[in-house]
Structure formats: C-alpha cells, structure tokens
Write a structure and sequence with these properties.
Layout lengths: L1 H22 L14 H49 L1
Length: about 90
C-alpha cells in the first residue's frame, strides 16, 4: 500500500499544479507605448528632416561627381583625337 499512497500524493500534486494554472490564465501583456512629450516629438522631426536633407545632398553630389568624371573623359578623348588629327 505504500506505493499506492505515493501515487495518490503524486496525483494530488499534479492536480494542484493544474488548478493553479487554471486560476491564473496566461495574459498577453501589450506594452503600452510611452507618450512622447512635444519637445521629444519636435526633436525627432528635426532629426528626420536633417537626415532626409543630407541624403538628398549626397545623392545630388554623387550625380554631379559622376557627370564631372564623364565630362573629363570626353574632353580627354577629344584632345587626344585633335592631337592625332594635327599629326
């Protein structure tokens, strides 16, 4: 009977754990976003504007640089052709 008693004890423990789980249903907690102050919002907007502006400038500067390089290549080719024509 000693083994039978242990089984009952084990069964009771398992049942108690299951009851505790039923009593405390798992809650899905949604993290609330903290409301940002006006000052923080203004700072964020300012940073976004600056980053967009710098992106725009870098894009333009890359285009201009590429254009300059192409123009220089054309000039060099034209000069080389003129030199060959003179000879």
């Amino acid at each position: 009977m000693g083994a039978g008693e242990k089984r009952e004890d084990d069964g009771n423990e398992v049942e108690e754990e299951e009851e505790e789980k039923k009593e405390k249903p798992e809650k899905v907690v949604m993290m609330k976003k903290k409301k940002k102050s006006k000052k923080q919002v203004m700072i964020m907007k300012k940073k976004e504007r600056r980053s967009r502006a710098t992106a725009r400038l870098t894009k333009k500067s890359k285009k201009l640089k590429k254009k300059r390089e192409e123009d220089e290549k054309r000039r060099k080719e034209e000069e080389m052709e003129e030199k060959h024509m003179k000879k």
